[in-house]
Write a structure and sequence with these properties.
217 residues, mainly alpha, Helix Hairpins, three-stranded antiparallel β-sheet, binds manganese (II) ion
Amino acid sequence: MIKNNHYPFVLQPLAYAYDALEPFIDTKTMHLHHDKHLVTYINNLNATLKEYPEYQNWTLEQLIYYSSLLPCSIRQTVINNAGGVYNHTLFFDSLSPNKSLHQRMPTGGLMRSIQLDYGTFDVFKAEFKKQALAVFGSGYTWLGASANGKTHIVNTANQDTILPDNLQPLMLIDVWEHAYYLKNYNVRADYIDAWFNVVDYSKADASFALIAPEFRH
Ligand code: MN
């Protein structure tokens, strides 16, 4: 997901052009979100770890999952900024301008799991949107899976992740206002609807297959 997955963390370019998600997510938001917001989290995380060489070989996931082992002087700063890097990387990686139909809905094991848990894909989407609308303040709505392949829609605040919940992240929507305010102003529902047009489920399918290759076949 991120090439240099330890200190010093390095910004990776988007896999698509800044304007590739138009008209659903606007070019200016993509520039600011990737080149300013994500970069700030990367810089803050590197600055925090600079004086702590014993943690410089930890992966992003380890920094988040084992944050209770970090000195309390840097623990919350690492949680905030490692989470900011992790969440934004997953967010940008989960988007694609490709209009291929199979990328606009899950396939294989993930689709079967969603159908078992929600009945139909449309019911799942409605529930995901409902949860994304319910995030109070800044945070994310995730699709995650437990080790037995059950899917979970989970909301988190700030830059928290679902890794400490022992859930495999499959995809997430960023509902911080900086993710949509320039285009959608305060209307988060419009942004969520637009996001459904550019989320690429093939990435979620691949992540799901890693944890539950035989699940519910
Ligand atoms: Mn963001």
